[in-house]
Automatic annotation (TrEMBL):
The keyword Endoplasmic reticulum does not apply. CDD domains: M56_BlaR1_MecR1_like. PANTHER family: POSSIBLE SENSOR-TRANSDUCER PROTEIN BLAR (PTHR34978), SLR0241 PROTEIN (PTHR34978:SF3). The chain crosses the membrane at residues 6-23, 35-58, 84-109, 276-297. Belongs to the peptidase M48 family. Residues 113-191 form the Peptidase M48 domain. InterPro entries: Beta-lactam_resp_regulator, Peptidase_M48. The keyword Membrane applies. This is M56 family metallopeptidase. Binds 1 zinc ion per subunit. Its cofactor is Zn(2+).
Amino acid sequence: MITAVTLAALAMACGLGSWRLTTARWTSRAPRIAIILWQSLGVAWGLATTGAMLAYAVQPYEVGVLQSMIAFASGEPPRQSWDALHVAAMIAGLAALAVLVVVLITAGVQALRARRRHRVLLALIARDDPGVPGVRVLDHPSAAAYCVPGLRSQVVVSEGALKLLSHDELTAVLAHEAAHVRERHDLVLLPFAALRRALPWSKVASDAQGQVELLIEMAADDRARRYCSPRRLATALLRFGTAGAMPTPQGMLGVHAKNVMARVDRLIKPGPSLPAAARYGIIALSVTLVTATPFLWTIQL
């Protein structure tokens, strides 16, 4: 019973922490650290929520959740008799776990299919341009710049973007898209998109997805700043925002007008870095969450 209560308390703490993190102001000062914390909160919440129900359900086995589930799957009878509450908790826990796994797999499969279709489309309508080597160019008048993530990643710009941006601004935008590809931000977003599908009514899930989307853009901005002037990237974002940029295709990561001013202000007037003690403390908290929660699945308190 103590294990179930502990996991339930941990799930509530993760939910509260996620709610507070949606309004935290420090995240823009360390977007990569904030992304790590978001990921750890998501993993811990999922495991703690399902684990709390399953821990109560398998109480008659008098061993840890993981060992009890193995015994249950193998048909081994519990040491104590089942009652209606334990059966209901088992059904609810397995259903919740199945929903989380299914929506994650579904979101991943849909993203892979969308990218596969888009690569086929690009092979037909995009072209190479010696002025931007390694980049596919679309003959479209609207401004667009995005990447197709994956093992065969591609960076795509439109003819409209080439006409809209100066050489330095284009370099900044391409460095930003290359950062998305290099750091696999598509994989960072995937579980949050899946959670939004599993909990479409949850404001916290919606806000979490929006926050992580903004944070990966800021993280890509930070990497792009290593290769270009922050002001050039800021002016490029403003140009995209005022020119009515073409929507980024489904499953891709690209430049869009959402949260442009927050990113521009951050590029032009960067705030102080997050203190090292705070960085290490957040990383330690994240590691504790993703290691302690699975550990609670293996013990019986």
